[in-house]
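Lecture 7 notes: from sequence to structure.
We start with the chain below.
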Amino acid sequence: MRKTVGVIGGGAAGMMAAITAARQGASVTILEGNDRVGKKILSTGNGKCNLGNRKLDLEEYYTERSDRLKECLERFGTEDTVAFFQGIGLLLKEKNGYLYPACEQASAVLDVLRFEMAALGIHVITGCKVKQILPGQKSGQIAVHSEEQHFCFDSVVIACGGKAAPKTGSDGSGFQLAEQAGHKLLPTVPALVQLRCSEPYLKAVSGVRADAMVRVWDGGGCMACERGELQLTDYGISGIPVFQLSRQVNYILRRQREVEVTVDFLPDYGKKEYEILQMGRKLLQNDRTVEEFFTGMLPKKLMRQFVKMAGLKPGESAGAADENAMKEVYRLCREWKLHVNGHHSYDNAQVCAGGVPLDQVTENLESLRAPGVYFAGEILDVDGKCGGYNLQWAWCSGYLAGKAAADFYGG
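Predicted structure tokens for the same chain:
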């Protein structure tokens, strides 16, 4: 008799697990809570689906078990992802190492996955929200219950996401199933998400976008930094560098009220170079107002705000202005301090940090608490930075869990 594998969740990791298990000869059923599979895929990469990255490095991921993650990525890496998608008909293109479908449509990624599942005879049941799993039932099989339906499988892959973007189906229900299987979860926080700041004057600079280095301070030292296009909003800060840092910031916010960040809008200048720049600009001081003098350094909204914060008046003579106040404007360009006191919700987050620890699963991502139960994707304590890393983890973990689930021999 064919092995029966149940996959809870029809997202990226779930579909990969299902396809892999079916290719191993298993009879596979996907139980998906939404009215269709792959809903979250359609929103990835701004609708273009950045499905992987040539630079596959552990530094691009966060987890408490980097050694286990390293083993997993070595068994299914970027080249395996490329080969898989090319094998099911998807043409790929590369932009600075970032991998996309050649047509730059996320819907194409979902389509080829759906077509492959249909070709393999994978049974997909939508609108089926699993409420309970009971390992060790009925001759070693695993019982799976939704509100209206009941199933028994030889093995089960839990791949129903974390808490990020709950409208796409990642509503945290997978964590409850993991706890039913005996797992103790690591605390979760939104990651790749916007941050809220307490400064009231942010409304005055809302809409500004600028290249910047953003640094996070904890206990007096810089704990992390990222560079990229920073976006200023009326509530706080956004953009790629903020997304990359949001995980660390949000875990600090769990322990204290605020987190201090500093922004350097001129990161290409060394200390000496910046001093030379200031000396050279003094030649402009005598015949211009303060506002005119600082025009051309940074976006106008920012310079106006920094002039105001330094206690200067835009219309006063730059040559007669207080020298220390002028230096303060220069300092703000390099060390603008903001206080983060919150973050956007899981509704806005791209991923969820935390979850099932990797030291509670085997190298094949099988539960050490409940034999025959496997995990894949965001439900595990692995989250990556922007750039296709989270989808690469979905493909990798889905493959490993699906293959092992099809090979599982229950007692």
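Points to note: The first strand starts at residue 4 and ends at 8. The chain has a mean pLDDT of 95.
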